[in-house]
Amino acid sequence: MGRHSCCLKQKIRKGLWSPEEDEKLYSHIIRYGVGCWSSVPKLAGLQRCGKSCRLRWINYLRPDLKRGSFSQNEEDLIISLHAILGNRWSQIASQLPGRTDNEIKNFWNSCLKKKLRQRGIDPSSHKPLNEIKAEEDETRMYCSNTDETRMYCSNTGATSEELPIKPVFDTFPLVEIQTCLDSFAEDNVNIYNQIHQTLEPLGQKEGLCDYSSALHVTEKFGYGESSSNSCNWNCSIGSEMNNVLGIEALNWASAEMVEAPTHVQINGVESRERKYRSWQEKQDMESSEDYSTYPLFHDLSGTCFNAPRGALASDFNMDFF
DNA sequence: AATAGCCCCAACCGCGCTTCT
DNA sequence: GAGAAGCGCGGTTGGGGCTAT
User: Fold this and answer.
1) Segments in chain A forming alpha helices (H)
2) Chain segment A215-229, per-residue pLDDT in tens
3) Which nucleotides of C are covered by protein (CB under 7 A)?
4) CA A39 → C1' B14, Å?
5) CA–CA distance from A227 to each of A96, A230, A263 (Å)?
6) CA A103 – C1' B5 distance (Å)?
7) How far, in Å, is the CA of A200 from the C1' of nucleotide C21?
8) How much is the pTM?
9) Which of A278, A98, A255 is nearest to A170 (CA)?
10) How do residues A93-146 score in pLDDT, each as one tens digit?
């Protein structure tokens, strides 16, 4: 679909909003409410597209917005939530009243990333930097001398430094849990058990990274109200979730430790790996050679364990980690 | 004082998903 | 069921302010 149709029309203003425009939009929404965003600019007398109006309202004009810099508590919470949710800024923002996803995203990119690096933590994986470096070195040592690797380098122009990294345990695998939404409250114990079964193979073993020294995990995440199913779930079993997070989620297992739980889809694919895979697909198209035995990606973390899906209404999908 | 470089953040863009016709 | 319209999200961009030279 791409660009919003209203943006294609002529006479649409872009760029920074003037105080007059802000005033028009604010007074219109205060008086009439939002309704349909595409009709807001016309009704408010603005030469903006609805999308731009929506963004301005959400990120700047909304009366419930909190102004000013982030507190230490907010900062800690963002880091903790990012370790769990990744770049799901809207979900992170839903746990910080008065903060917008855009604001948090900017704060993360401009400030928190640096802070984490200074603490020796990789901001994208939340793993210690030296551990990541060691894994990359190991991978390069391991795969830099195969025929396939040489072929990959010669075909793509990649250097040995740009070789695909051996996939490690995915920070944010998709966990699909089957339950019935109609009996949601009763299923909490069931969900909790499934989470535990899912996570058990990942924790309490040697070689885990203890996060407690690097991250201050707040005692309660403060799961708030939300209209989405996932957030309702957070509300329902927040305390159990907290236990899971405190005990297991902030530890990391190496790929070799991961066994494949039935309901876990581990879908983390490094960009270089993706590049490799597209190259590999191309190779497969051109020759009948079977690359499935290629040693680089025998690792479980590159594998999808899709649980058989039942009827849509009875599926409970949770994006977890 | 001039200017180059950096950083922050508001706003835009493109895409996927849902709802409507 | 198909296509259009609308919404929301995450990634990216670019302009303005600040700092160093």
Assistant:
1) 19-32, 40-44, 50-56, 72-85, 89-93, 101-107, 113-118, 129-143, 147-156, 188-199, 229-236, 238-244, 271-286
2) 333 323 332 222 222
3) 5-12, 15
4) 22
5) 15, 9, 25
6) 25
7) 56
8) 0.53
9) A255
10) 888 888 888 889 888 888 888 888 888 888 878 888 787 777 767 766 665 566
